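Submission checklist for the structure archive. All mandatory fields must be present; incomplete records are returned to the submitter.

[x] Identifier: Alcohol dehydrogenase catalytic domain-containing protein
[x] Organism: Pseudarthrobacter humi
[x] Residue count: 350
[x] Sequence attached
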Amino acid sequence: MSTQMTAFLKQSRKKGDIALRQVPLPMPGPGQVLIRTEAVGLCGSDIHAVNSHAGYEWLPERVVLGHEAVGIIHAVGPDVSSTRIGERVVPLAIDGCLNCSVCAGGTPQLCSQRDCLGLSFDGALADFFVLDAGRTVTIDNELSSSMAALVEPTGVAVHAVRQLGENLQGQRIIVSGPGPVGLLCGLFAEELGADVELVGPLEGSQTRLDFASQLGFATVRGHEGIEGTRNGRPIDAWIEASGAAVVLETAITLVRRGGTIVIPGLFGVLPHLDVNQLVRSEARLQGTYGYTRGDYGAATELLLGNQERLASMVTEFPMESVLAAVEATEQTTVIKAVVVADWTTTRRRL
């Protein structure tokens, strides 16, 4: 086995300093596994890291990117059973220290010592990556490579929607931001019984809103369209996945009294919130971050049940075209870019 591998690096903290390079093959330490990468999705966090945006100053000087991943355990370190070799897994990309009261309470994603694969330490956009064995979750072989790489962002969506409860029968829910997380939020809310509408801007989201329509969602385009939602049934809940300050500001004025606004996305420009409106309407503003291990189970079931419906959401790129995948993600010319390893051809298509 070669001692070198191909990896996609953020080479320094300089904006855009990225490259596909040959690097030493990592070896698993005590309690760790070496995973052969099958597929990796790209998301907004990767783009923020690539561009050294505010809030990403904590990244290491040099790091392999990639956290939405699936792969096969290729080797194990000390204290890990060799029976795990060959197991297909997805990583819990975000995890806590597992020793504090926050982690013990079942919310390790909120731990003050939490870290993230592909941001805090070397990630999965490489031929192989190393991870603590306890941060892996076995994944169904029936999922294609690209669908399995969506377990992590689907976990984010599941965790967000669960802030509204497990039975959303008959509720009217608006999801703003028809990107992958917004679309997956809409899909899970629909599974729980909600009537879902997807909202996006007039410019730059036609492909995503068209795909939302293909999934069967009602769609709303532009700010005038958002304002038009006043004329329908009361809005029970709003999931703000666009990261657009003006949309959140508007959502507060539109959700019904006693309704809930869930925010799974981060904002480049902080919104100016009408707190008096929140008080007078007794609306709930709920932030949501990451996921728990339990969210992965529901995420996997959601993907298994909708694999054919979601297949066209993904655009696959080979590893040698990872720079093109980054550009397509940044320019939103694709809904979801997934980098797929050459050796996984048997799982690439349904």
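[x] Structure attached
Curator remark: The two ends are 31 Å apart (CA to CA). Residues 93 and 282 are 35 Å apart (CA to CA).
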